[in-house]
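For practice. Any example?
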Amino acid sequence: MSKSTADSEVLIKHTGIKMIQAFSLATPPILIATSLYRRSFRLSPFLRNTALSTFIGGGAVGVGMGWAKAATTDAAGLEDRAYRLKMNVGQRRVDDYSVIGAVLGAIVTATIFLKRAPIPYLIAGGAAFGVAGGVITHVVKNYKDGTAQGVAGMVEEAKSIAKGES
């Protein structure tokens, strides 16, 4: 495996995980709003749709975006981006919180709603909720610790990355 391939894999994996995290935050409110509009809520389809949207939809969108970015970035830029992703403690922490949240969410959801929906829906839907919980926990922890960057800081960081600064 060449260095460029390994760097591409880092970027593709990163964008896949970020889209799963984003979809885990966005999907439940959208599905709840849809259920309220239709005036019908059933747990089983809610969990199934949350899981499918988060893991299949988010994963597919993220991997596609990562592949497109990796394909259009030169080797030096790709190596720099992969290095920054590997060394970013905040990225690793939010990813770790998401994995821990997914495991806990799957267990807790399956425990609470055991007889109300099929086990695969409970586990996958609970894992999707857990991913969202992990992301929210990371954001709240950063805010409490005073390390939250805020929107202005993120915009400035994005501008410096676009200019090629590290």
The mean pLDDT is 88. The helical segments are 3-38, 43-72, 75-87, 89-112, 119-145, 150-163. Residues 24 and 76 are 32 Å apart (CA to CA). The two ends are 26 Å apart (CA to CA).
